[in-house]
TrEMBL record:
Protein name, entry field: SLH domain-containing protein
Positions of the SLH domain: 534-596, 597-659
The keyword Repressor is annotated on this UniProt entry: no
Pfam families listed in its UniProt record: SLH
Key words, A-Z: Membrane, Transmembrane, Transmembrane helix
Segments crossing the lipid bilayer: 12-31
Amino acid sequence: MKSGLSKRLGKLFIEITVIVCLLIQTVLFVGSNPSTHAAESTANLPNPRFPSEMQKAMKEAEAILLKGEGFSDWAALAFVRNGTPLPEGYLESKGNEILERKGKYDSASELSLAIMAYSAAGGKAHQVAGINLMQKLVNRTDMEDEGSYGVSLAYLAYLFYSTNNYYRPLWYSDLFFNRLNETRLASGSWPSSGDRFDEVSTTLVAVSALKASGDIPKSYDGEKIAAWLKTLIKGNGSINQSTADTANAIMLLSAVDADAADFHLTDGDNPLRFIMSNRLSEGGFSETLGGELDPNATLQAYLALTNYKLILEGKPGLLSGWRHSDPKTVTVRVEGPKGTIASGSSTGVTAHDAVKSFLERDNIAYAMTKKKIVSVNGIKEHQYGGDEAWRFAVEANAYYDFQPECSNGEERLNDGDLIILYYGASNMPCNVGFQVEYIAGDGTLRDTNSIPHHTPMILHVKKPKITSEGTSTENGSFITVDINGKKVATDAEGKVEVGGLKAGAYDFVFTGYQAGGVPTILKTIIHVRVVSTLDEFKDRDEVSSWAANEVASALSNGYLQGINSAGDLLAPKKGLTRAEFVAMLLRVRKQTTSTEQGRVFTDVPSKKWYSDVVNKAAELGITDRVRGEFEPNRNITREEAAIMLANAGALNTYGTLDRLHLSDIEDLPGNSLKAIQAVNEHGIMTGSEGEFMPKETLIREQAAAVLARLEIFLYRDKFFGYYDYFK
């Protein structure tokens, strides 16, 4: 009996010993060097699969990465996802890098990573002082030089920063997707890309991009990839005995929905335990067991732990969990049945967002039913007994007069779009098909993009017509045309005679208001250039050679005019008054001078030629001051011009001021410094020989040059490929 009891006690003792050992094994991370590795219990943690030791390792890695030389863009992505503040000035230093390079990077992967990091830090990759990094990415001809890795990372950047601001792209979503599916190997992985990117890291980026695209069922076989990965893993849980390679494997496992903590060979260790065994007591990670601190190993381990933590929290992974959807800056116009109710700038991701924000900011009463705007300013649906309602139209930001397209209000916006909330019937299709041509003196029919000055013409207006067979056009009969404050009406054939106009930029405003009903057309504003050429001026030889092309451009666009009644003297070296410069800015901005704004400045009386011009500029926030005296007849200085240019173009700054290396601006006030930095970064006003000459008078040929450059920035779609050239 004693013998049986002894045996039972001995067996119990062995079982308890085994259980204790197993418990110890589950809570300890065992390293090869006990003096440099620590273990902690996870019993009281909310998620035992990510113990405090891992959290501490991440914080230590962050401290080392911050101290390192050159903060990594990969680290920036992980810092943002972890909610850790980026190094002070990171966004500006990244802006400096982009400006110095003019957005030109040696490889697609380098550009892709710059886009992702800059965007994650709060920048706009499609607008860095006029440089569109996304446009450069989707038009790279060397996209496949880095194999599947370069294509995958570019696809990630494409999905990361989704926008429609691409002009004739060589690469687009379907091409990225199809190319990756074509290059997948039988093992389920993607091939290495030369010596730079191994098979694991390439597969990681490819899977992350395909997962982010949303087409998971067609994209990859997670089980096959996990099986392939198991053939690479060693008994100690590593790949190539490397912290960096193993960290990529951990991220790839998460991407295919496998848990690295459960992933190991029979009687082997797992990848998480391996990288933690290379954690150093002073913080950071070694690349191999028993090695010294390695910056790349520390970075890769940090990325892997970040990704693992995000997955355990039920969040998307580090690479696939991005979608850049920052609000866009747009113009909103609210058109009622009798006229324009309000207009101004707003921001939003969709047209609906931007309009709601605008109405609320300007205290304009509106009502909604099931996310639909049904009343504005007391004007309700079906007010005239038909199907009239509040509807959306969106006009893309472009130089030419693209017509607004009907919208449900939910499309994603781009910077510079015009959003029109209008009250109309269903047979008023956003003016698609609205046309205006003019009959020249020789009887030919021409468009209104460019009209010679002092040339009489006949406008011919056509409006859209909806029938059961579709949409067509018909003569725009009895439509009111407002040209420079003078209103005339088209006849039954949609025609109206217009006398010759002097050179300049004009707005032809077409309306179809009618008593007791909705308008026959959506109020349409067509920007018309009445032009002259440099050869027409007697003093054309006085124009400096460096300014000749830009003066000619300003004349052909109607921004610059002659100074005498005959219109044949240009006076290129003459100073420009503040009122004259504001008038030119409004022409570039295609703004009418009609304004509800009362008198703003004490020295701008009514009924002067510049009264409405200055008041409209103040209303739009273009002027360099908002009250007091404007000094309309004093010559404008380069400093003042810089401020107004920055306001007119809504120019932001991206780098740091010291990058400009201008010796004569340090004593200027802050708003002047910011404006000078903005116009310099955009290449609109740069100064000469290390000086900006802020107090010198801006002369007419200089004004023509800066206006031509501002035009190129504002209407980049027209000048695709040229903006980088003049910068």
